[in-house]
Amino acid sequence: MIVWLGGALLLVSVLVLISFWRIRLRSKRDVKYPKSLPSLPVIGSLLHLGSHLPPHILFCNLQKKYGSLFSFMMGSHYVVIVNNHEDAREVLLKKGKTFAGRPRTVTTDILTRDAKDIAFGDYSPSWKFHRKMVHSALCMFGEGTVAIEKIISREAASLCQTLSSFHTVSLDMAPELIRAVTNVVCSLCFNTRYDRGDAEFQTMMDYSKGIVDTVAKDSLVDIFPWLKIFPNKDLDTLKKSVAVRDELLAKKFKEHKDAFCSETVSDLMDALLKAKLSLENNNSNTSQEVGLTDDHILMTVGDIFGAGVETTSTVLKWAIAYLLHYPEVQRRIQEELDAKVGLSRYPLLSDRKILHYTEATISEVLRIRPVSPLLIPHVAFKDSRIGEYDIPKDARVVINLWSLHHDEKEWVNPHLFNPDRFLDENGDRLSSPSQSYLPFGAGIRVCLGEALAKMEIFLFLSWILQRFTLEVPAGNPLPDLEGKFGVVLQVKPFKVIAKLREVWENNEITT
Ligand code: STR
């Protein structure tokens, strides 16, 4: 009897074990994760990611070995890298909401007071409310009105004025380009501007550089947050820069609060203040619920300001760097300007419809040197899929825009600067020659400033080239085209001569 019982027990246990094993096997077989780089406990795949190459190029190269969708462990975080446009579109557009999350990191938390902004803030009802408000405020003061054209043109005129004062002396155009774009966002956010030599402008440029150099570049402290307890030079720079920015923002906020009048809303900060006050008047708790605290307003304005300055000035610098490398492109833009705008008036936004080559050149600059080659990482809110692969909840999904924009299957000679690829055989503009082109991202987190940026880049460039020819000063090298990876793909400083064009010498425009 005992033997019989024992035998039955053994049989049952074996059966149970087999069924467990089968279930595990089945679930393992059904789940198909993207190919992964080798990884070790704690440090993850760090040893395989150490390289002299910047991450966007390293990830692009790793496709050869791991395929265009691959993964690795960054510390304890599972990261998926997307290198083709089909998968990128699935993440950003088709499954935009599933992948709308953002990772929290040490450096971005310092910058944004624990993600109380739009760019790095997680997806939530209050984030949605916030973004919608900023979007409509931007439309009201910028994109939607003729006022913005006036503001940009005023700054373009001032920029050209400064350039002509240099005559044939070589200069680093960066500070003047930054002042021009800063004044545009300053007008939108605070209804103010900076003159040349303004001390506050210099402070702003310094703190902004401090932030760009240290934030969100997957430094070790963002991978292993516990490292923040150790002394860290970058983190100190970031904290100091953020403190200076906060002081400036607080000053602007106080001025706006003191002078606030709901009848005359004249900038973005006023608009946000008005929304907050009207929420508070209607229901005392709502502004807390949707997260419209003072901190939220400050961080949002900080975002718009920081993004507006760093991105647009970077694109302008890249454009000028490429024009110096490709003088024939510069000449063709000038010929187009001469033929279609002439010398009796300045370029207008409405000229975007006719200046096809100029627009194509801008598109090509955004393709070959995307400002944000890895966009900002996304996070999966739930288990999902990309193509045929399973993606677990909480995975960080990085879109490698660099790979999309340099995909040999999509672009002929992708490393060649060639604005003509954005034109058809008649010289008319192609809306997009390839699906593999997303310079502003896409979906619910698409760049809020896309329209504003395009207007600024177009007007600043066409104003400059109508009047000047840009040249490399004798004895100086051509600008470096590699750039420096960070939260934006930065351009290394270079010198230029802005030579007044002969046709312009005795020209006068009366407006
Ligand atoms: C630049 C420096 C600064 O003072 C503030 C910010 C916050 C917003 C950031 C911006 C930064 C860099 C460019 C970003 C932008 C939000 C969207 C934009 C990251 C760090 C891009 O995605 C390119």
Structure description:
With 511 residues, the chain is α/β, with parallel strands linked by helices. It has 18 helices and 9 strands. It has helices at 2-30, 46-49, 55-66, 85-94, 106-112, 125-143, 147-165, 174-190, 199-214, 220-223, 233-258, 268-282, 286-289, 294-325, 327-340, 356-368, 401-405, 450-467; strands spanning 35-36, 69-74, 77-82, 378-379, 384-386, 389-391, 396-399, 468-471, 497-500. Strand 2 and strand 3 form a beta hairpin. The longest helix has 32 residues, at 294-325. It is globular, with a radius of gyration of 26 Å. It starts with a helix and ends in an 11-residue tail after the last strand. Residues 15-20 and 22-26 have low confidence and may be disordered. The protein binds progesterone. Progesterone (STR) binds at residues 119, 208, 211-212, 215, 245, 303, 306-307, 310-311, 371-372, 376, 487-488.
How are the SSEs ordered, and which strands pair?
Layout: H1 2-30, E1 35-36, H2 46-49, H3 55-66, E2 69-74, E3 77-82, H4 85-94, H5 106-112, H6 125-143, H7 147-165, H8 174-190, H9 199-214, H10 220-223, H11 233-258, H12 268-282, H13 286-289, H14 294-325, H15 327-340, H16 356-368, E4 378-379, E5 384-386, E6 389-391, E7 396-399, H17 401-405, H18 450-467, E8 468-471, E9 497-500
Parallel strand pairs: 1-2, 3-7
Antiparallel strand pairs: 2-3, 4-7, 5-6, 8-9
Bound molecules: progesterone (STR).
Task: Give a quick precis of the structure.
This protein has helices spanning 2-30, 46-49, 55-66, 85-94, 106-112, 125-143, 147-165, 174-190, 199-214, 220-223, 233-258, 268-282, 286-289, 294-325, 327-340, 356-368, 401-405, 450-467, and strands at residues 35-36, 69-74, 77-82, 378-379, 384-386, 389-391, 396-399, 468-471, 497-500. It has 511 residues and is an alpha/beta fold.
